[in-house]
Specification:
Elements (H helix, E strand, L loop, with lengths): L1 H8 L5 H40 L4 H23 L7 H30 L1 H50 L17 H39 L7 H25 L14 H4 L8 H4 L3 H23 L7 H11 L5 E3 L5 E4 L4 H5 L5 H13 L2 E3 L4 E4 L4 H28 L1
Antiparallel strand pairs: 1-2, 2-4, 3-4
Helix pairs in contact: 2-3, 2-4, 2-10, 2-14, 3-4, 3-10, 4-10, 5-6, 6-7, 11-13
Length: 421
Amino acid sequence: MIIKKFELHKKPSGVGYFINSIQTLFVGVLRVWTIPIVLMLSIASGFTTYYGLSHFITPWIALVITIAIQSIVVICSLEMAGMHWKANRIRYFSVVCSLMIALMASVSFSYFKFYEISQKDKLHVDRVNLLRVDVKTYIDSALTIKADILKQQNAEIEKASTEVSQAYFGTHPQAFDSYKNHVGEGPFWKHYNQIYLEKKAQKEKFEHDFSELNQDVQKVQSSVNSLDNSPDIEADYQQMLSQFESLQLKMNILFGNSGLSAVPQAPLLMTYNQFNADIQPNVAMWSDFSLFAFICAAMVDFFTVLLSYRLEFTAPGPLTSQEEELIFECLRQFTEFRINRNDELEMVIEKSDLERARRYNDWSRMFAVGLLLNRGFLRKIDDKTVEFAPNLYPLMAEKMGDKIRQAKQQAQENNVELNHE
């Protein structure tokens, strides 16, 4: 008899209990795992918020404000999951407003960090293009002056050639009367011929110098183009600056010897530190709005709010044996059950007219309903009805099986006692 009673009160270990334990264990593991995920998301969002905020205010103040922002985001998300707006509208809207302000601050300052990351390649391309424009403008102006010099020299050579011909045939307007209309290579002709040869030699020298200058121009342009995908950006940039300074020096000497007062103005190129400097957060980043950076900044805070909300809203874990016995006995007190459109067992939790007339106290069964809703074993349909969650069916099946076995055991014991009598 003692062994039978012990077996009767032994914890059931059927398939239903095994499935239910696996489900509740999985839910519990997910809930526990949600906590470090929320913390990691808060830290990530806090880092990006601090990065943007520290560029506008003192770093230690930015750190304090960042901690406050992330704390408000998590706390308000947890509070929203545990409260209903109909119960206390003022409190609910104050929590929502606090959460929205914290999210706006977090996303706004996090945007700067994601903007820097997303626009880093674009910034490099823009700086290389700016170098190209400056170098090209300088070279184009130099080529324009070069064309003017060559044009001037051609005009001088043509004039000198004409004067040599006039001196040879004696038709030069400045020729002495004794040399006029005398054809030949006299002293007058030799003077103008020497001038012609000097002009011609000067032109050839300029053409040779300009030919070497063109090679330097090609080297500078090639160095600028190599900055797009350079494996050693610092060495290539320093080489480009050195070549550009050499080109500038040669142009100044060449154009200075030409006798022209107009010398091309060389641009002031960026130093390597300026060229490779990171983006400094500023308000101008919002004018050049980056949708990708904004989505990334908002996504981190969205997941933080969502997981914090679900952390409070989801079921905290399985039921104990005492709680299982309690909810089974309390749920048996409800009388209106039906199968709904979701093919789930649905029950009415509101008092019936007869219970109201008898002033029936339903505190215990409503407590069981609240417990099951809180643990995720029931799902609320409306204010009057709830439905069973899938993980409640095996639990109730085991309890009903226990009751049936107890009833059969009791009937057998009664029959044995009657037979003895």
